[in-house]
Design a protein that fits this description.
It is built from no helices and 11 strands. It has 171 residues and is mainly beta. A hairpin with a 4-residue loop joins strand 5 and strand 6. The chain is elongated, with a radius of gyration of 21 Å.
Length: 171
């Protein structure tokens, strides 16, 4: 039996080796998980353009590799006061770079229609999305929403807990 003990392994350039440098295939493994939740005061909008509501979930992650994928799991409690439609999406902002709606602002998660004569329609809304930010800089993801026809939309109505989970998966 032999035992090999070392304090540190380095590449010839002094850097710490990655799993790939050592011949280990880590594709598909979870590298890190970030979770953020809030249940702050009610916010509302009648905007027909996408807006980031101050109480909507957001979270930041710094990918360990440029080829990593980020699995985004987000949940928000919303109420639509009148007949209309709510649409939601996720914005990606890279530290020191540009911000953009994922896939150009395509609606993800729940779009719901409703009519209400007695105080609104309440829904838990969810967005599940996989993103490849191609960076090792910090990336912030934010929930954006809009009212399609200007009907009043509440977020966090009634003290709902909103959350966002970011899971980095090795590419």
């Amino acid at each position: 039996m032999s035992i090999l003990k070392v304090d540190q392994i380095q590449l010839s350039n002094g850097n710490t080796p990655t799993a790939g440098d050592l011949g280990i295939n880590d594709t598909g493994t979870v590298l890190q998980v970030v979770h953020n939740q809030s249940n702050s005061a009610n916010a509302q909008t009648t905007s027909t353009s996408y807006v980031s509501w101050g109480t909507a979930p957001q979270a930041a992650i710094t990918p360990k590799a440029t080829n990593s994928k980020i699995l985004i799991l987000a949940q928000v409690g919303m109420q639509l006061d009148a007949s209309g439609q709510v649409e939601n999406t996720i914005e990606r902002a890279i530290s020191g770079g540009a911000s953009s709606m994922l896939d150009g602002g395509t609606t993800y998660g729940l779009s719901f229609h409703g009519t209400s004569a007695s105080g609104g329609i309440w829904k838990d809304t969810h967005i599940t999305r996989v993103d490849t930010p191609n960076t090792t800089s910090a990336v912030t993801y934010k929930w954006y929403g809009r009212s399609e026809n200007g009907a009043n939309v509440h977020i966090d109505h009634g003290g709902a807990t909103n959350s966002m989970v970011l899971i980095e998966i090795a590419g």
